[in-house]
Amino acid sequence: MTGTFVACQAPWSALIVDDDAGVRQSLRLCLEAAGARVLGVATGQAALEALERAHFDVVFLDLWLGAEAGIEVLPEMLQRQTDLGVIVVTAFASIESAVDAVKRGAVDYIPKPFTPDQIRLTANRVLEAQRLRRRLTELQDALDETGEPALFDTRSQTFRQFLHTAGRAAASDAVVLLRGESGTGKNLLARWLRANGPRATAPFATVNCPALAGELMTSALFGHRKGAFTGAVADVAGKVQEAEGGTLFLDEVGDLSADAQARLLRFLNDRTYERLGEARERQADVRVIAATNRALDAEVQSGRFREDLFYRLNVITLTVPPLRERAEDIRLLADYYLERFGRKQGRHDLRFSPEADRAMQAHAWPGNLRELRNAVERAVILAPGPQLTPADLGLANGAHSTPSADGGVRVGAPISLDLLEREHIARVVAQAPSLEAAARTLDIDATTLQRKRKRYGLV
Length: 459
Description:
This protein starts with 11 loop residues before the first strand and ends with a helix. By secondary structure, it is of the alpha/beta class. The protein has a five-stranded parallel sheet, with helices on both faces. The longest helix has 29 residues, at 116-144. 40% of the residues are buried. Residues 1-9, 143-147 and 398-408 have low confidence and may be disordered. It contains 18 helices and 16 strands. The protein folds into three domains: 6-132, Rossmann fold (3-Layer(aba) Sandwich), CATH 3.40.50.2300; 145-319, P-loop containing nucleotide triphosphate hydrolases (Rossmann fold); 416-459.
């Protein structure tokens, strides 16, 4: 570790808890020079109240606050914000007190008197450890997602122009709404926007809106207090606090409950929010990126989505092109998936046959990148020989990809009913304002539609 304060490249915040006003002032000047937003308080109770109101990255906690033992409030601080880096500062340094502080959750220990370099380097170590933990979590999350880095390797002029516009949006701090069909890579694009924007090294938190309902959705966003609702057995911070200083990604924002929509609107308006079960107002500094495959303007007309929230989200809209509109990239992406899954399965000699290449180019890919990825992965696992055929990819010797005038599967083509149903479901869902509306068009219930989408790899 060098003396360079790398952590100050991203916004961060520090809380100083010391009963000596002179020490608070010295620490404040030192930390503000390193780029921190700083708040100083004199008591443990004031520190807990500050942690209720706002998020902090680092706390400098005096071992003794007058007659009060600062160390006693440390565990409660960590209950308020589990990701805190607490550094104990004391004029009464000893091995015993240092060991006790670490046992209670402190990450470092500084004796008084201290130098500015000691303070900056210690804070730097804490912030760098937090950054590495976040990065590890994000990398693990990325391994579990369906999107791939190859999404941004393109030979398509259409997609190249899209990325140019997206790059300009990334450089701003404005709210971005990502629209597009299922499987086009909206979640990966959200990470790309973050990586190419001013908050690239700050946290990234995702809320998967369809997976939550009612109070759980609001709690996931904004957190809750213990006892706020049935099953709330402990305080939960929420994704907004998790994303402090960074980016909050709302995946399938059209599925937000009415309560969550109202709270999100308030948050977008003034960056304030409240946890469920408490009246205390909190503030957060996050950039919001939302994604949807629904026609939100139609959802507004039907009353299922708030008009005022739609306009707050619709500051910058980016519509991700479907794979059929960047056909030049189909083989590029297929080769990437083939290399990745071939390496994973130990099958390094696999290649696409000319017939498979033609079938891939002719197919409409209603499931977009997700469908292509799944087709190649299945072929890598199941194909008997080194040359992949259309049948290995599920394209039935090209029959699956027999196009109609509008680029889809042709009714009456020599294909199975399953393949025809799959194409029809994909097209209806893509055009419908919601899954419920698509189910009504198909004359099936929403549960059956969801089951069929999973069966055909359309989710």
